[in-house]
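=== RUN LOG ===
request id: a7f3
mode: sequence -> structure
chains: 1
length: 53
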Amino acid sequence: MLSRQIPREILIPLIVACALFMEQVDSTVISTSLPAIAKSEPCGLHSRQRLGG
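=== RESULT ===
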């Protein structure tokens, strides 16, 4: 295994970029799957709205 270290000037922006990318992917997956989740739940969002709660 290589023991070469990555300079901090590259490592910190790389970590931040990966975190922002993961956040965007997560929000995209949630926003596209939320309608399907709401339809599939037996006591999901629709039934709560009907019950007034």
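=== NOTES ===
The longest helix spans residues 8-40.
The helical segments are 8-40, 45-51.
=== END ===
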